[in-house]
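Q: Ig-like domain-containing protein, please. Structure only.
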Amino acid sequence: MSPARILVQQKTISESSDLYATCSTFGFKKQIMVYVYLCKDDRLYEKIQQKSDQYDTMFTISSVGLNVSGNYSCVYSTNEYLPDQVAKRGENIIQIQVIANFLPADISVAGLSTLGEGDNVTLRCTLSVPPLTLGDCKFIQSYLTRNGNILQVQPFNVMEMEATFTIEGAILRDSGHYSCVVLPSKCIQEHQKILDGNNSVFVEVRESLFLRLLVSCGMTFILLLLGLCLWCVKKQESQVNRQMQSLLAVQQEQTEREALEAQYGDSFSSEETEGYQNAVSAEEGVYSCADDLPVRTRTECLYAMPDKTTPCSPDPTFS
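A: Structure for Ig-like domain-containing protein:
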């Protein structure tokens, strides 16, 4: 087994990107077919058969993870070996460093964590160890999240290992669980610390005239409908009150009439009874007429005498 030379385009790559490494046997082998081995930390990582007329063999590691970081070298042999049989370094060693896309950071509140509406709150996002960045970048992106949703993006100072987030004029919906994440693979140049695009546009939000008119008409209709309902209720209550008053008046009048009839009816009955009894008493008796009176005066001298008979006196005008 003989050493070969390793060549890479980038020694520092971001997570989920592709790694390209070339193992060269130029100047080391003759025109024969060999097996080229890519080693990581002196252990076989991959192998490819190289034809006799080839001297460069490219290895591609797709969508690398953080575990791809390590020391890489190349060796070759005319024999094919098993992975555990390859334990040798190549002509040179290159360190490959995979930069994480997301790195959890520590967050703290500068001041009280309980605020009132309209207050400002400052949050500090920090790291305990300086992060590895692409090309020794001094500023990287950092996210402030609330309840798992990205809320703000700010530059993270790699040297100071800190980023500051400010929430101005806090309102009730700003309550929640906050955390921050640093993006070491997202480099920001020093002159681009303010995260801007190629240009900026001004957007002015105005109140819609149609919407305002629609809301006004809707409110007016609701008020009119409410007024109509109240008027109908009042009218119905007034009619009910008038009917109740009329009914009470009729009942009261009927009651008074019945009372008067009962009072005067008893008085008339007692007077009529007394008069009738007096008339009957006056008419009681024995009626008679003297026989010796002339016929023409007999009827004239007929009178009533109670329990006795008195002769009628003749009228002196008659002879």
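A: Brief note, in case it's useful. The chain has two helices and 17 strands.
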